[in-house]
Amino acid sequence: MKRLDLNSNEGTIGFQIAPMIDVVFVIMLFFMVMAGAVKVEKELPSQLPGNAETQGETPMADEMVIAIAENGEITLNDEPMDSPTSTTLPALKNTLLRLKQASDQSKTPVLVTVLSEPLAKYSRTVDVLDSLAVAGISNVTFTVNEPEE
Fold this sequence. Notes:
The chain is of the alpha/beta class.
């Protein structure tokens, strides 16, 4: 049997650069061909359903009046909102949120006047102010009903 001599320099191929250059050219050719096949995305003019914005100001109600009675009853433009014992005032908050969204769309400011009776509890005024803060309404005026003589 013939013994294999690992130390001889006969027949060592070494590092062949030509196949590597061929592989690089094939990869380069692949990327050149694929670069021409890439589709450029374009923006399609479409309108999604949602809130419509107006160009100019739309006339809205001049002022919203929130009245606080002595018994704790709260009304918005003479319409009762929540029960006198409710501290979270969900109906008032929802109405004010819709009012704020409508005024933002029409680009008009929301004007709110809080009209409190002299003997109304201060905590009810705080509840109304919390509702206004949740709705994001900051243009608020305070007045007090003077007792009639």
